[in-house]
Amino acid sequence: MKTAIKIAFIGAGNVATHLATALRKQGFCILQVYSRTKKSADILAKKVGAQPVNDLRCLSDEADIYLISLPDNILLTVLNRINKSHKLFVHTSGFHDMHLLKAVSERIGVFYPLQTFSKNRELNFSTVPICIEAGKKEDAKLLIEIAETISSDVRLINSDKRRIIHLAAVFACNFSNYMYSVADSILAQRKVSFDILHPLIMETAQKVLYEKPMNTQTGPAKRGDITVIKQHLSMLSDKDVKKIYKMISDQIMISKPTNKK
Amino acid sequence: MKTAIKIAFIGAGNVATHLATALRKQGFCILQVYSRTKKSADILAKKVGAQPVNDLRCLSDEADIYLISLPDNILLTVLNRINKSHKLFVHTSGFHDMHLLKAVSERIGVFYPLQTFSKNRELNFSTVPICIEAGKKEDAKLLIEIAETISSDVRLINSDKRRIIHLAAVFACNFSNYMYSVADSILAQRKVSFDILHPLIMETAQKVLYEKPMNTQTGPAKRGDITVIKQHLSMLSDKDVKKIYKMISDQIMISKPTNKK
Predict the structure, then answer these.
(1) ipTM field
(2) Which of A2, A216, A224, A248 is 20 to 30 Å from A152 at the Cα level?
């Protein structure tokens, strides 16, 4: 199957870079890489043996799949500038409904890898969940086959459910990372190295692979220890961070563990 | 050194259980385990070959070190009921000042393992940072020697700094875990299994072992994508969770990455 399939990437950001690289490694032909920025198109195109393009009118007709991997706030603008096609158009967004793509084709789909991507970090794709959706059964089958060459966790998920997963991911990833950054800045003010928290951060993450997070909650709020909470609040100088500390502690205090896994 | 040292544990909770077990494994003699609850004292005492005690008046005089591992809000009450001693008294709290222990002895110290402990979870102590403090140099030396038998990361940290580390740990551990639990409940409402987030949670945690968390931030708030943020807010039914989403997104939007590692 795979050697016959030609893919054009529209977008050359973090997701496109990791995805194009992983697919290229599996023998797929990456025909073109489009980016508004010539340099970004050049870098990724070179990496995956594709033609760099920075004008949408230069998109080849020869690709079997057009994989659109753009920031959510750019997607619509770019779609409006792509000519109507009969080829399979797929986006990689957790947020956007698949049917947006109807503007460019009748064969549409979604290929959403649920992960946080950094350009300069090696990533093992094999465990990244890939959420697939497609308008036509045969396209869903094709996208699943492609996804299964790079990941062992491929799921058929519709747009509604994908949006929920994307929202949950903001809490699990973006907001937990924000908590790390607050911890980092608290330590930095007192010249304590952030690495002292590394084992704690890893253990906190690993625990929830085996147990519901509500049941692994620890700390002063969980114990209802008002003295510690008050003292912590008095130690925080940033009034917004103080407010966040208070709100989250209140939420932890009213939450009840559950027996369900 | 170690075989000669006898330790009495005051407290039989998560920290005491993990610590007593780890020290016992290294050949230390755990003389007694005190807990207000007979059952808790019995369980831990049996595990580490100690005498269970649930009356403070039964504390032996023969221990070299009394290791007090109690919830922060109980510590003071228990201290008031311990007879004055000339032995080394040590607490395991990240929060409390060492000098609280002056109420019971002139030889005082702190042995704070920076980790989140669950009773029923095996833990590898060897990478857990242990923060040591002591009133006398020779006691600091002794506590460091003991800590180094179970961990390769032993640090001399005073009470002020330890309190800062404890506050940072609340953000890095307790609050990131709260974010996991919000994600879990968002998914549960739509019957999506939480395991879909496991690779994302692990990658988010692993990233900050190599890079400052502020520089690894991703997501709609980081990109300033107001459309996605508004849609997410409309999807959240709990008004407190909505408020937390908004506050944290605002904070992420105003934060600037830094070049410093």
Answers:
(1) 0.95
(2) A216
